[in-house]
Amino acid sequence: MIVELGHFALVVALGLAIVQGTLPLLGAHRHDLTLMRLANTTALAQFGCITISFAALTWAYVSSDFSVINVYQNSHDAKPLIYKISGVWGNHEGSLVLWVWTLAVCGAAVAWWGRNLPLPFKARTLAIQGLIGVAFLLFLLLTSNPFERLDPAPLEGQGLNPILQDPGLAFHPPMLYLGYVGLSVTFAFAMAALIEGRVDASWARWVRPWTLAAWVALTAGIALGSWWAYYTLGWGGWWFWDPVENASFMPWLAATALLHSAIVVEKRDTLKAWTILLAIVAFSLSLLGTFLVRSGVLTSVHAFAVDPDRGVFILYMLILTIGGALALFAWRAPIMQPGGAFAPVSRESGLLLNNLLLATATATVLLGTLYPLALEIVGGGKISVGPPFYNATFVPLMLPLLIAVPIGAMLAWKRGNVFSALGRLKLALAGTLATAVLTFTLLDAVSLAAALGFALAAWLVFGAIDDLRNKIGLFQVPLRRVRQRLKGLPASAFAVSIAHAGVGIMIVGMISTSVLQSERILAMQPGESTTIGGYDVRLASIAEVEGPNWTAVRAVFETTRNGRPVADIVSEKRFFPVEGQSTTQVGLDTSFWRDLYFVLGDQTPEGTWAVRLYVNPLAAWLWWGVGIMSLGGLVSLFDRRLRVGAPTTATAHRGRPAGDPAPAAPGAEARA
Amino acid sequence: MRRLLFIVPAIVFLVIAGFLAIGLTRDPAELPSALRDRPAPDFALPPLPGRDEEGFARAHLGGEPMLVNVFASWCVPCRIEHPLINRLAEDGVVVHGLNYKDEAAAARAWLDELGDNFTRVGHDLDGQAGIEWGVYGVPETYVVDADGRIVHRHVGPLRPEDVEQEIRPILESLQR
What is the domain partition of chain A in residue ranges? Predict the structure, then answer.
């Protein structure tokens, strides 16, 4: 009964979405207040309906209702409760319910918090959101219905893939979807702007919080997935340039570019068409990612569903949505009034460089992801594109970008000077040089890459500190003035420094885990000892243990350093009888300075055990760095100017609203 | 001119969508043989103990269509497909075995247990011959024609429908 209610709620939501996607657009065109306000109601009502639906599905999982096919295929009574709940979205159908629910949350958020948005604009935005909802709800109801019943109902379920029974998985998809779907809001804003034919500073100000929120969620979601792969899969790495990973990374790159180009639109009223295009592209990449992981077009280690029929549906969706948006862009964007000019060296050009490099990087990742498919289709054989390609292309693109970050932050608007910018970065320059020398001497000449990488990280961190220092005038004006400035500093100023410093810290982690990693792969038997990275490791015991729904072989590694005990690290190979699959539990000991990463392998024919031992220096800095980046984004959301009502489009210089199509007649300046 | 630039993103997308549409019609798990319709590689493998002939080498291919089955005692799906291999051999098809990265004694025991109808078996301890053939994993089955050219490659264990719909028709067409 509850399950049928959930199904019905989805159908009602579809009806609401159809209404939301059409009538408010009509209302905005005709300035019909009632029709425009309808968008708010339908958005909130949709949120209510889909919440009911989501709750119904969750109830079916929690109560282990195996008459529901989806629950039968993905759950089991012996599963711990938290994994029964996270199992709701650990499969194709359920994850789509999570997707439309997040879409409804975002729509309701725009309806509720978008009070300072002009009504026609808001109506159009919600209408576009509604149309996206229509597409996904149709997909859900027509091809991927999670509420289908099974008669007779089986007594027990088929269980959940054991790799997915993990706390990290509980948060990874919801975070990612918040990011993907949050980008749909910026997409809707961009479409509304195109329909209205106008982009101005206030548009950029409205777009900013949504882009930030989506970006923060996406950053956290990708990091969670990466961290989860690190401590769960036991491959020793955290990024493999897998198509599904790339599918999440590309929207992130586009969203980062969007964050930065929106600043230029807001401050200088230029780069408008480009920013609109970015907003469209960012969400398009989210949709493309949805397609890639569910259609079976690319093989990947964690493709969700390999189903060409569903793939066809999503492809149609892609063509309609993205094709339609880009067609609208081609038609309407040219009428956007180009804004203020800027010198080749200026903050605008710095941000433009940022965008160009990020856009190129996105295109590179897209190329690498789709190239095997394209090559196969034109008959060039089957290849795979992996880390060597991305290391050769992506890394060289990121280097100039990261070097430019502190300099760009110091450049003046409209016309800047690199030397005076560098002059304000004295602390950063000193810190970078010191780090480079220190690393180089401490780590022997072998690790030139490490020294340069750490120097880059120091450049970013000290550059961020310098940025803040210059803003409050430390060492430049009396301390009392400094304190005043500090108090008056907007949240976004702190946020920028925090986020950029986070990037630097993350790079420290990335460099040291790649370049400075120690690895030993060998066969050991209980009682045997070995050394790695300065640690003495003794395989103390191998024993069989049992868990709630698994049995395992457990290895205990007694680790000491210079005779003093460090940790007893436990690694297991678990076998899940219901699903008939095995997983590896990595033995991980994390500290500020290093990760000890020990993995138990298979038993060899001789009776010894294959083990893989890694020492990853400064690994924690990677995850902390990303966390700090996200924190920066969050802090920025609290900026005063995002909460105070956006100004109405004030008359700019020349007496006409900024961004309106340029009047053809020369006498137009006289118009108010 | 500037207006034309704005249509570029839409065109790029349509090209990508085209590739994706074609991609949907293909099977990503299909692994084409790099040696399709090429002569089988040069190799010479020693025999397994207890099989007193000269092992398996390039010279034994040709003259009539035959199958080469890559197997190993540590490979679970090989066990499942082996009865089908035996049945093919009993029907008169010449099937050679390529014992891939396996301990000779273990392979010997495996064949004793499951039935040995291979015409010849080569023991590829280090996998070098496998590399020459382009072996991706175990089991794999290659169809070689009378001229010693690799005509077909089946990756993974043979199921009854693979034998009926894939292997037998190819062998029949080669006999003609």
Answer: 1-165, 169-307+333-416, 424-516+625-642, 518-617
